[in-house]
UniProtKB/TrEMBL annotation:
Name this polypeptide is given: YhfH family protein
Pfam families: YhfH
InterPro entries membership: YhfH-like, Znf_MqsA-type
Domain of life of the organism encoding this protein: Bacteria
Length: 46
């Protein structure tokens, strides 16, 4: 059976930072693999 595209993306594993290993909160237009802390940006949620 062919899986729907929505189910495919829902079932992808969480992305983790390449440097520290912390889980990255992904954004639709973001292709980065390093978290904000490791690239020197302050937390945008605070």
């Amino acid at each position: 059976m062919i899986q729907s595209i929505v189910e495919f993306f829902k079932n992808l594993p969480a992305k983790h930072c390449q440097h520290c290993g912390e889980q990255i909160e992904e954004q639709a237009e973001c292709y980065g693999n390093v978290c904000h802390q490791c690239i020197g940006l302050k937390d945008l949620n605070s």
